[in-house]
Specification:
75 residues; single chain; alpha+beta; three-stranded antiparallel sheet; Alpha-Beta Plaits; 3 helices
């Protein structure tokens, strides 16, 4: 009997990144609708989680505050 073929799963490891998690998907959509904010986003992981580079953290926080959001930073 031949063993089943090994299936490869595409995996990416991202170092030095930060996540933005929103309470509702609609908030994520609102954030991404602003070009000034969307250009700082490296990727979208789910309806409520965005991936950003750690080097852009301060710019992200500043932009969120300009948008009237009150971000909570968790380290």
């Amino acid at each position: 009997m031949t063993p089943p073929p090994i299936t490869r799963i595409a995996v990416k490891l991202h170092k030095h990144v930060s996540l933005i998690r929103t309470a509702e998907p609609i908030v994520t959509e609102e954030l991404l609708s602003r070009k000034s904010f969307a250009r700082l986003v490296a990727g979208r992981l789910s309806d409520t989680v965005l991936l950003v580079h750690s080097s852009d953290e301060e710019a992200i926080l500043d932009e969120l505050r300009r948008m009237g959001q009150t971000p909570r930073v968790v380290r």
